[in-house]
Amino acid sequence: MQHSAVATLVRPAAAPARAGAPAASPSAPLAAPLAGLAGTDLSRRFRHWRGLSGRRHLFSVFPMGEPAPGEDAPRFADAVVMAVGRDGAGAPRILALAETGPQPDLFYDGRAFRAAVAAGADEIHVHLLADGPAARAAVMRDLAGA
Length: 146
Description:
By secondary structure, the protein is of the alpha+beta class. The chain is built from three helices and seven strands; from the N terminus they run E-E-E-E-E-E-H-H-E-H. It has helices at about 105-110, 110-120, 135-145, and strands spanning about 5-10, 30, 45-50, 55-65, 80-85, 90-100, 125. Strands 1-6-5-7-4-3-2 form a seven-stranded antiparallel sheet. The longest helix is centred in the C-terminal third of the chain and has 12 residues, at about 135-145. The radius of gyration is 15 Å and the shape is globular.
């Protein structure tokens, strides 16, 4: 299947957390490190994101890069990719979410990625385990809360 464009979701940046503020929405995806890697050098390189369905999706984590954000990020075709920042409490937050199709540069060169960088994205999370466009779309819907 040919992709002419990258499917993307842009999330607005979260307002900073303040004392007495309610907890994050239960529909928001939750990120967690892999328990089996706790205390190892690899613990920061992988993250599970729990979607609205309750399913966990495994992502590899890459730093955003300086001075050109995303320039050093791996350009995997047929992947789910996210630009991730932090909320006011320091918890990971999805700022942009895309299915790359055969042309991952469309995400990194696109408006959604630039908006995520401007909103404070500091990591790239890449999911390579979804087998085919329908599975990648399902992961995106799950993480987008759709």
